[in-house]
Design goal:
Elements (H helix, E strand, L loop, with lengths): L1 H9 L2 E4 L21 E3 L4 E3 H4 L19 E2 L5 E2 L7 E2 L2 H19 L10 E6 L2 H5 L10 E7 L5 E8 L2 E2 H20 L8 H18 L3 H9 L6 H12 L1 H10 L7 H5 L11 E3 L7 E10 L2 E6 L2 E3 L4 E5 L4 E9 L3 E6 L6 E4 L3 E3 L2
Parallel strand pairs: 1-12, 7-9
Antiparallel strand pairs: 1-2, 2-3, 4-5, 6-10, 8-9, 8-11, 12-13, 12-19, 13-14, 15-16, 16-17, 17-18
Bound molecules: zinc ion (2 copies).
């Protein structure tokens, strides 16, 4: 549930406090015109009473009332009425997303990526699914795939996808899991491939799909995900030079455990790839995000990755692989200017904006 806590932290908020009446109306309770403390979320103004509501949208962090036009997943995650139209909550729709994804992958890469055994059972699951399976890691999974091979060599494929995610993100996970199925069918047993390389190839097809659908945010997420230990970046470069067919051909006919020569030079134990795969989201963000601004009379605060900064203040922010020392240099109307220790240039973040720190 760490993921959910993070999403809450990232909730984009601004508190406007002038004392005077404004032309804002609360998007939760409809009260307005509002005055005093007003929180501006990415969807609009929220009154101070609604801001204190306990339930939050698991996708955007918006506070929610019971009975609003909301959805709730089986494991208790709420999805607000604004995100609901773009969230996938039923298995029929998840199957449509999966079907559209595999069709687009074949269109992008050719018949070579079509499955020889095309039947794939697609299901949705809730977070609880994993605890029921008695898994020790409490990491919240986005997807899972499995291929059963019969003695005669035929394959039965299965994919499970996490319920209640945005359609675009679900498609990226579907592309990842579909690629696992293709690898399960096409990699000869004698071609041992490193686990990170397999994951990176799966991430690469998701990357190419998101590129073809013009989803720059998703591309950034895939590149920043430490899941493949950086190998995804090497594969993106390799694909640019040689094309995807080179990579697919290597899976079928290659002999090395790793695809990238630079990576191959590293002394790394070769792991035996499991035929089942899980797509694991990152536990901590790799990016800095300005969740919002808090303006209360003369005092102003910028909320960065859940940490509150006054202008001039320096604090630490834990990112995935390191702790950054961040100084909030200036807070403007809808953005904050930051100084990061070790960086020459300032970083200016708008509300809701996320930035990878080099
Ligand atoms: Zn309200
Ligand atoms: Zn939402």
């Amino acid at each position: 549930m760490r993921q959910l806590a993070l999403i809450l932290f990232l909730f984009a908020l601004v508190l406007v406090s002038t004392g005077a009446e404004t032309n804002y109306t609360c998007i939760i309770c409809g009260k307005g015109p509002l005055h005093g403390r007003i929180w501006l979320s990415k969807w609009g103004a929220v009154c101070d009473v609604c801001y204190r509501l306990e339930n939050r949208c698991s996708l955007c962090g918006l506070p929610m009332r019971d009975g609003d036009d909301q959805a709730k997943t089986g494991d208790g995650r709420f999805i607000c009425k604004f995100d609901r139209p773009n969230a996938v909550l039923d298995v029929g729709e998840a199957r449509e997303v999966f079907t559209a994804t595999r069709r687009d992958l074949v269109e992008l890469f050719g018949r070579g990526i079509a499955l020889n055994f095309p039947d794939v059972t697609v299901n949705l699951f809730d977070v609880d699914y994993w605890s029921e399976k008695g898994r020790e890691d409490s990491l919240h999974k986005f997807g899972f795939s499995y291929t059963r091979k019969s003695r005669k060599g035929s394959c039965t494929h299965e994919v499970v996808l996490l319920n209640g995610r945005l359609r675009t993100e679900l498609a990226a996970t579907a592309a990842h899991e579909y690629t696992h199925l293709w690898i399960n069918e096409n990699r000869p047993v004698e071609h041992a491939v490193d686990g990170d390389t397999i994951e990176a190839i799966c991430e690469l097809t998701a990357f190419k799909l998101m590129e073809s659908r013009s989803q720059p945010e998703q591309l950034q997420k895939i590149l920043n995900n430490p899941y493949t230990h950086g190998e995804i970046k090497e594969l993106v470069a390799l694909e640019k030079e040689n094309g995807m067919s080179y990579i697919f051909n290597w899976v079928k006919n290659g002999t090395t455990a790793r695809l990238v020569s630079a990576a191959a030079a590293r002394v790394a134990p070769v792991k035996t790839p499991a035929i089942a795969s899980t797509n694991v989201p990152p536990p901590l963000p790799a990016t800095l995000k300005l969740g919002g601004l808090l303006l209360d009379g003369q005092s102003r605060h910028a909320i960065i990755n859940g940490v509150s900064f006054a202008a001039g203040e320096t604090k630490s922010i834990s990112l995935r692989n390191r702790v950054l020392s961040v100084r909030c240099r200036e807070i403007r109307r809808n953005e904050a200017v930051l100084e990061i220790s070790g960086l020459m240039n300032f970083i200016t973040l708008k509300i809701g904006e996320e930035r990878f720190v080099p």
